[in-house]
Write a structure and sequence with these properties.
heterodimer; A: 178 residues; mainly alpha; Rna Polymerase Sigma Factor, Chain: A; Arc Repressor Mutant, subunit A; 71% helix; 0% strand; globular; B: 315 residues; alpha+beta; 2 domains; 7-stranded antiparallel β-sheet; 5-stranded antiparallel β-sheet; 6 helices; 12 strands
């Protein structure tokens, strides 16, 4: 079966980096979300990063660290987004650059995935429900407060405590496992 | 004690930042802290990792709770061999057995889920043996193009739906062989109420030699142009990435030696405002082109238009 009327497909390099991007999306997204806490902005940065990674596909050297390469591009996109949407209540550009310079390896982040589920189980169902509303349904504190019969401030405090508890639990189990 | 207070304040600022709750004054204070202290940066990354991990976990839990399935699901065939389709309850049990720590995810209540209207607008199981796909890229809506032909299912390649399956031609110049379809959203009027529209695509893919590693792919692109104008954009990578309104790709690489040959993949794109055409591109290829000899098949392609409306208020 041949299709003489059609043009050659795009370069394989583009397909390769897009494949790698999808495979490592979680690691890249974790990096972006750390520097760009706003969910909407993080989505924009991820989209821009994907497009730039696709455009620059030929400059990626197969066999080298794709996540590091993609996160380098993502870091620039975070800074671009920062300058574009200059806001008062976010970290300074110097702070974002300093954080990007000290970013942990994707491997060290992924090593913390294993303890997470066990740590989540230790939380009460009500707190897990709040986490689910915040991170999956992306509800605001006010929306969660209305649904859970709490004040918005109480929701924020509960979420903050939950995250600190999870961090300490994950650190503890992570160190225990090493 | 003083150091504990110090860390508590830093943790509170970091958490507020990652939760989007920083005031301007606190943002300045945290920025200075991060710029000047490697310890502050380390604590920031630890907390950022927690936010990221919770987000991944919760979104994964939602998907499982809503569908009972992972994105990639072994498919039951008429032959009854290999794997059974995992229904919502069984998925909970299976995953619970494999990883008891995930079982709680199913206890998360789906309170007042947003109302959805789902309409299947395309179903293709390649039943017509005379099916001719016009060129490699569609130039009009509602017509498949690509290097795929209808072949009868058999004992080795049992059809998922009907009696025939689509067989991809062996790739030549590129890694993948494709089947493509265009949807013209002008043919599907939007509802009057406030809503979010998305297009969901699922397709089952098969590799004839599970001992070799294959790659299956669904890509979706949203364009403001009419269907006839999409092909030249898609074929020009620079133009594509400057023009496309939205783009979603989902790849799946088979694991060597898997018993089943059929794999169901799903992809979903939220339709950006101003979208006229949606391109669906289904691809199949070898993980290491040239080194393998697998034949690849596709069957049971379903495309749904989903309108999600604002949720009713909680009681």
């Amino acid at each position: 079966m041949s299709y003489p009327d059609d043009r050659t497909e795009g370069p394989d390099a583009t397909e390769e980096v897009q494949l790698l991007f999808v495979r490592h999306e979680n690691s890249i997204r974790a990096f972006v979300r750390a520097l760009q806490p706003s969910l909407a902005d993080a989505d924009d940065v991820m989209q821009e990063t994907f497009l730039t990674v696709s455009r620059k596909a030929t400059s990626f050297e197969p066999g080298t660290n794709f996540v590091a390469w993609a996160c380098g591009i993502a870091r620039l996109k975070v800074l671009e987004n920062f300058r574009l949407k200059k806001r008062a209540n976010v970290l300074s550009e110097a702070a974002i650059s300093a954080l990007a310079g000290d970013a942990p390896s994707p491997q060290s982040l992924s090593e913390r995935e294993d303890p997470l589920e066990g740590c989540l189980e230790r939380l009460t169902p009500k707190v897990r429900d709040l986490l689910w509303r915040r991170y999956s349904r992306r509800q605001s504190s006010e929306e969660m407060a209305e649904a859970a019969g709490m004040t918005a401030n109480a929701v924020r405090v509960a979420l903050s405590k939950a995250r600190v508890t999870l961090r300490d639990c994950i650190n503890s189990q992570h160190q225990h496992a090493r | 004690m003083k150091e504990k207070d110090h860390n508590s304040e830093l943790d509170a600022l970091i958490d507020a930042c990652l939760d989007g709750q920083l005031s301007e004054e606190k943002a300045d204070r945290l920025s200075r802290w991060i710029e000047g202290s490697s310890e502050a940066r380390e604590r920031y990354w630890q907390m950022a990792a927690v936010h990221g991990l919770i987000e991944q976990s919760m979104q994964s839990a939602s998907l499982k709770a809503a569908t009972g399935q992972e994105f990639v699901t072994p498919v039951k065939t008429d032959e009854g061999f290999r794997w059974s389709r995992i229904n919502a309850v069984a998925a909970g049990l299976v995953i619970g057995l494999l990883s008891a720590s995930l079982a709680w995810a199913y206890a998360v209540p789906l309170i007042n889920p947003s109302p959805r209207e789902s309409k299947e607008i395309v179903f293709e199981s390649f039943e017509d043996p005379e099916m001719k796909l016009a060129g490699r890229f569609p130039i009009i809506a509602n017509q498949w193009s690509g290097a795929v032909r209808s072949v009868p299912g058999n004992e080795d390649v049992p059809a998922v739906e009907g009696t025939c399956v689509g067989q991809f031609s062996a790739p030549t110049k590129s890694k993948f062989t494709y089947a493509r379809y265009l949807i013209d959203l002008d043919e599907h009027p939007e509802p009057g109420e406030e809503h979010v529209r998305s297009v969901e695509v699922e397709a089952s893919f098969f590799t004839s030699i599970p001992e070799e590693s294959s790659v299956f792919q669904i890509r979706l692109g949203a364009f403001s142009q009419d269907p006839g104008a999409v092909r030249p954009i898609w074929n020009d990578h620079d133009l594509l990435f400057d023009t496309v309104l939205g783009h979603v790709g989902r790849n799946y690489t088979t694991e060597l030696g898997q018993r089943t040959g059929w794999h169901k993949l799903r992809a979903n794109i939220e339709v950006p405002p101003g979208t006229r055409s949606i391109l669906i591109s289904l691809g199949a290829g070898d993980d290491e082109p040239g080194s393998t000899t697998s034949d690849h098949f596709v069957d049971a392609v379903r495309v749904r238009l989903v309108d999600t409306f604002a949720p009713p208020p909680d009681d």
